[in-house]
Amino acid sequence: MSSPFGSWSSPFTAAAVAGASPRIDGARFVGDEVWWGESVPAEGGRVTVRSSTGAEILPAPWNARSRVHEYGGGAWTAEGDTLYFVSGADQRVHRMDRGAEPQPLTAAGPSHGGLRVQGGRLFAVREDLSAVPHRRAIVEIPLDGSAADDPAAVRVIAEGPGFFAHPALSPDGTRVAWVEWQADSMPWESAALAIGSPTGGTVTHVPTSAALQPEWAGDDALVFADDATGRWQLQLLPLDGLRAGTPRALTSSDADTGYGLWVLGNRWFQVQENGAVVAVRTNGRDAVQIVSPDGSVRPLAVPGDGHLSVDDVSGSRVLLSGDGSTVTSGVWSVDTDTGDVETVTGGLPVDRDWMPGAQQLVVEGAHGPVHAFAYPPASPEATGVDGELPPYVVLVHGGPTAHVTGAASASIAFFTSRGIGVLDVNYGGSTGYGRAYRDRLQGQWGVVDVDDVIAAARGLAEAGLADPARIAIRGGSAGGWTVLSALVRGGTFAAGISRYGVADLRMLAAETHDFEASYLDGLVGPLPATEDVYIERSPLTHADRIDVPVLLLQGGEDRVVPPSQSEAIRDALAANGIDHEYVLYPGEGHGFRSAETIVDALERELAFLGRVFGFTPSL
């Protein structure tokens, strides 16, 4: 049946999308079971831990959530029948034996994340924002609960005002490796590999470019990822005690094993008992490979191909979690010897009639090729009216040092199944295409990203795939900045949707949190020397140039991009008489977690597009 684009009926209601979007947060082998972390949108986005037996290991109201570096990650781990987790309520680490009540292992005050238990010893990244200056550390937490009353019982392995991630204990228990970086850089710009004793003392720093995830390969070698060649490649580092030899490259390919270290729980590879390394390789989309000790490399077929994490290893089995272009988000146990794949949770094949695969696109932009994924309108029950081109929404990911993978997504199908196309853009500055592509944005935030999303949108229109008069742009956080900046530029987008977007760079520099305090130095320039650039680039400075409708959505508890940013652009739009809507969601932080908010935001966005583009949407 032919109907105007945007008005098609769809099974993808906002409530269905909210229910279909639990976020997988790591997975572990626990005996014969698999445990995994999973968000529960219906419970305000609480993160629980579930078992492959069907049991919920971490009952409500407990919430495994870390606030270290604000983005958290690594908020739970397990060994034997014991769960260790960070309580989202107070950031204390707790121990919970199966079926028992959780017991605190740390005192109130500092935040913890990046938990890792090895050989019966628990390590974490600790962040103390009450100290001046703020302090972070790699720590070992006693398992007997003594540190709950005596904070001094926590053993500090390394500490400072910079940042730490990925603690890893050697098999013989005599050394700990980790990644660290200084407060004046981001981890994908410069990060060092460090090795020290669990009791403190001398620390060996290995010269690296942007090191990630050290893992021990026996007692005398470490595997880690580094991007000195322009791509994150696996390296093997020989060790004699704390004395480091010369790293040797295990891989050399036009793909990355690693990406932006935003959260502490990511794992891009695991070392098996036989010395082989199971690793993700990313070039836009993900694939998995096995690197043998003899240097040979072979692919491992897995259902997922987006933001894959190699969460755990046991014998020949590896646990992977992530997204897929043909399956829903899931967790898979894969036998690397036989290739057998067991779906632990999620990972369901998508209905290709409603969710055809995203099309990889490359368009030429002012700064070089621009990568994107196109999701045309799709429905087995409706087609567009003859002669009508579909409206499109151009999506701009946050970060900006991040990327999208063309994954199947109920939130995207919410639009495409109604006859609204979606174009998801990996603009210059995105990860997944090497350091040179990532570095395009250095000093050019608000220029390269805007040029690239405009080039992608125009390429779509010039190809006759989209109605050039009905292209909207939507993004969150750093993506919201690009939305507002593109609307200031004008001429391409007929409407904009900003979720907790940045409007004023000087305000962001003054209000943002520690982890990103120096981010703008690279993206724009250091203050006060480049204050004129901050003023000139900020959408708030040129809000009078915005002449199309804007929808602003904001979390009331956002500490990364505070409500003051959205409210400043709201006030400017109101003063200029521009059609706009502003919605503040109390209790929501940086990214919407509760089902109620997810539903309301999607329905508001659809209604907004219908009003602006002249169609009557079916909710």
Q: What's the alpha carbon Rg, rounded to whole Å?
A: 24 Å
Overall geometry: globular
Question: Mean pLDDT, rounded to whole units?
Answer: 95
Trace the largest sheet across and list its strands: 29-30-32-31-33-34-35-36
Report the sheet with the most strands, covering strand number, pairing sense and barrel closure: 8 strands, mixed
Approximate strand percentage: 25-35%
The beta-strand count equals 36
Characterization of this structure:
The chain is α+β, with helices and mostly antiparallel strands and 619 residues long. It is built from ten helices and 36 strands. The strands form eight sheets. An eight-stranded mixed beta sheet has the order 29-30-32-31-33-34-35-36, sandwiched between helices. Strands 16, 17, 18, 19 and 20 form a five-stranded antiparallel beta sheet that branches. Helix 4 crosses helix 5. The chain is globular and about 70 Å long. The two termini are 18 Å apart.
Strand and helix map with partners:
Layout: H1 14-19, E1 24-30, E2 33-40, E3 46-51, E4 76-79, E5 82-86, E6 93-97, E7 103-104, E8 111-118, E9 121-128, E10 135-141, E11 155-160, E12 163-169, E13 176-181, E14 192-196, E15 203-206, E16 212-216, E17 221-226, E18 233-240, E19 243-244, E20 248-249, E21 269-271, E22 277-283, E23 285-291, E24 297-300, E25 306-314, E26 317-323, E27 330-335, E28 341-346, E29 359-365, E30 368-375, E31 392-396, H2 410-416, E32 421-426, H3 435-438, H4 448-462, E33 471-476, H5 478-489, E34 495-499, H6 505-511, H7 519-523, H8 531-537, E35 550-555, H9 563-575, E36 580-585, H10 595-613
Helix pairs in contact: 4-5
